[in-house]
Amino acid sequence: AVVSTQSTGEMDEEEEREAMVLQKRLMSNLTSDHFDTSRFISEEKIVPEKETVIKTDFSSMSKDEKLMYLLQNSPELPEMLEEFREKLSEAREPLYPLLQLGRQQGTFSHTGHSYIEAKYKLNLLYCLNIGFYLKLQSSADKNVDIKNHPVIQRIVDLRKIFKTCAKTDFTLEKEIEHLLNVKQASQEEEKETDRKRKMSSENSGEEKDDIYLKQLKISEDKKRKKKKKKGIEVLAEDPTLMEDDEEKRGITFKIMKNKGLMPHRKKEQRNPRVKHRKKFDKALKKRRSQVPDIRDHEGTYGGEKGGIKSNLTKGIKLK
């Protein structure tokens, strides 16, 4: 924690120093004409002369002519575009994956991680300044002096910083390549394991489907055989249903009864009278176990014929 606070303090001091240097450089470009207020207190209105602006018709120009015109007016533009592509691709491919790798696994030291993060931000800052320069080039405002604009000086300063970082990049090149290869190998291993897992799950699913289809086929064959046997028995019992095979085939018991869709019931449940009779008998047995029937005695009471169980009590204790 102490090292991180010291490093952040040093970075803040460096940013402050850099801001002071930029402010001094901008102040040195100012002259006394910039502070002259007499031009705003003029009694007579000076009519400015109309400038003749020659407009170029780009619609009638070919592609080569447009390119020649661009190179004549801004010869530094192709070089800047090439640098823009290089720095953006460098930030995307080596630097951003390395930054993620350092955050996740902690493969770098504190100084190495801070250097890669600074280099990544530096590349993005350089691309941002070149993008602003391209916006100025494409703007329709002709009063903007692009050559003396502060963004040009900023791009030059960033180029100098890149030159100072070139030696460090050369020393870290082999280490960065090794780490990227390790990351690529781990990603390939993960893809291979995912592919194997998917293939195994698909194969197990196919095997289960095959087993289910086989069982379904066996059950359908059994049902078909039972239906055939049942149809033969019905036709044998009722000879009126037997007809010539050439004209018609005999109907089955199911077709003859024509009951439609009916739920399966037990034999006792089919007849309502029998159903209620069984229900009454069941309830009567239950009642007899709870309340004994009253029996008449001839003469004097001679005790229970079955005897009295000494270990059986049917009373309820009063609490």
What does this structure look like?
The protein is an all-alpha fold and 319 residues long. It has helices at residues 2-28, 63-73, 77-105, 110-138, 150-237, 253-257, 267-270, 272-290. Helix 3 packs antiparallel against helix 4 and helix 4 crosses helix 5 (150-237). The longest helix is centred in the middle third of the chain and has 88 residues, at 150-237. The mean pLDDT is 76.
Q: Would you summarize the structure shown here?
A:
Helix content is 66%, strand content 0%. Helix 3 packs antiparallel against helix 4.
Overall number of strands: 0
Classify the beta-strand content into a percent band: under 5%
Radius of gyration: 50 Å
Helix tally equals 8
Fraction of helical residues? 55-70%
N-end to C-end Cα span: 75 Å
Biggest sheet statistics: none
Order of helices and strands: HHHHHHHH
Which regions have little confidence, pLDDT < 50, spanning 5+ residues?
A: none
Shape label: elongated
Oligomer: single chain
What is the element layout, followed by pairings?
Layout: H1 2-28, H2 63-73, H3 77-105, H4 110-138, H5 150-237, H6 253-257, H7 267-270, H8 272-290
Helix pairs in contact: 3-4, 3-5, 4-5
Please name the defining characteristics of this protein:
319 residues; mainly alpha; 8 helices; 66% helix; elongated
